[in-house]
Specification:
293 residues, two-stranded antiparallel sheet, 48% helix, globular
Length: 293
Amino acid sequence: MRRLGIALLWLSWRLLPARALGAAGALLGRLLYFVAGERRRIAATNLRLCFPESADNARQQLLRRHFRALGRASLQETVSWWGSRAEVEALTRFEGMEHLTPHLGKPLILFAPHFVGVTIGGVRVSAEFAPVVTLNARIKNPEIHRLVFQARNRFSGEDRPSEIYQRQDGIKPVLRAIRKGLPFYYPPDLDFGRKDALFTPLFGTPAATITGLSRIARVTGAAVVPCITRQEAGGYVVRFYPAWTDFPSDDVAADTRRMNAFLEDRIREMPEQYFWVHKRFKTRPEGEAGLYG
């Protein structure tokens, strides 16, 4: 069944141009809204926690838009799996390069939160600035995991391939790569459990938030340049923001609050594009009940 799904994705990519993939993906998202009941309930819970001031019907419309954005990204991501470099470049564009260029070749962390285009943006970054270093989260579907892994190294040179690690590999190889001058494409905004995490507010709700951005920047002396991939009508924009000043500070908790505050601002700009189907508030403080039923 999984192989059939991959075959259908490949056929869609083969037959449809990128814009048509986006339209088909939006339709797929409409369908997923109805059939992916568990993920719909997770996303609805997240939206209720993060936007309690919004009316129920407004959150419902936002939820529907999220599934359309998610479905669109799911199909257009196939361009990064099988498309040529020219096709990947046609689907994405950069903004804010003036914020990135001064830091290339030096220790650098690209803070890349989980908006729906984060994987597409990551492939474009790796194509443009290879080699890079990144952490590859385990995806339940092994075929999809393999394709995502391969996509992140497709455009690296054979003599200097990008370095891709799993979380279980530990942080030491990542630190070595950063010190060599490889940009670290880093999405630290998911719930990874209690280890190395602080309960830091995200839209007012305590969220188990790993402190890696602050700790890695301190150990390596890396600049932190936020890197946000936005879905737009013609494709995706990978936008680089000014490097953070006075970061890290001597207060890891304050640094982690700063990370979440920046993320909140970006979510408010495009709330339908954040990865709401993830159980962001799954890990709770001791004694507090779960939030997802």
